[in-house]
User: Fold this.
Amino acid sequence: MRKIIIAGNWKLNKTSLEAIDFVTMLKRQLDDVTAVDIVVCPVFTALADCSEVLESSNIGLGAQDVYWEDSGAFTGEVSAPMLKDIGVQYVIIGHSERRQFFGETNTSVQKKVKAALKHGLIPIVCVGETLQEREANRTFDVIKKQCEESLAGFSAEEIQKMILAYEPVWAIGTGKTATSQQAQEVHQFIRQLLVKMHGKDTASTVRIQYGGSVKPENIKELTSQEDIDGALVGGASLKEDSFVKIVKNCCDVQK
Ligand code: PGA
Assistant:
C-alpha cells in the first residue's frame, strides 16, 4: 500500500504574508483529509512563518532546494540542518528548472539527497526528459541515467525514505500534460529500475509522483494508474480552489 502524496511546488511565488494567508486557508479546507499526504513547498523566506501555521496540522512543509554542506563559506545557500531547525520535513531536489537554469547535475542531486537524509528530511527527487529527448526516443535512457546517478550509493533503507517525481520537462508549465499512459509507462520503468537496484520489496514501497500541468480535471486519472502515487503540482498549487480540488479529487483512489 502506497499512500498518495500531493505536493505543491510554489516556485518563485508568494511573499510571507501571502503564504501565511494561503496555508491558513488550506489548513481550514483540508483538515479532514487523511487519505492523502499533503505538502506545500514555499520559497525559503516564507518557510518559518508557514511552519508556525502548519504545526501539528495534516499539511507537511517542504523546501524547494537544499545545499549539501551543513555550514561554511557558501554564500547564498541554505543547509539541511537549517531547514530542519524551522520545522521543514521535505525538500524538492533536482527539479528540472534547477537543472536547466542553475547548473544542477545528477552528481549535485546525489549529494543533496545524501545531506537531506542525513538530517531527516524527506527528499523529493525529480527526474524527467526534455521534448527533444522524447522526440529522439531517448526518454528511457535519460531517465535511467538520472535515476542511476542521482540515487547512486544509497541503501535500500535509504531509498525507501525518498519520494521520486517524474516530471517530463515538456509538460511543466505548458498546459500539456503527459497522457496517463505516457506517464504510467515511465513510472513503471522507474519502478523496474528500483527493482533492479534494490529488489521488489523496496521498489514496491517507494512513492513516485507525476508532475507537469496537473489540474483538478486530470489528477484522478493520473493517480489511478498503477505506478503513479501522487503529484508534484506547480501552477495549480498557487490557487486555493485548484489545489484543494486536486487533493480532494484523489482522496478515494486506492493504490
Ligand atoms: P506545473 O509544474 O504543474 O506548473 O506544470 C510542475 C512542477 O514544475 O513541479
Summary: Residues 9, 167, 172-173, 211-214, 232-236 surround 2-phosphoglycolic acid (CB under 6 Å). The first strand starts at residue 4 and ends at 9.
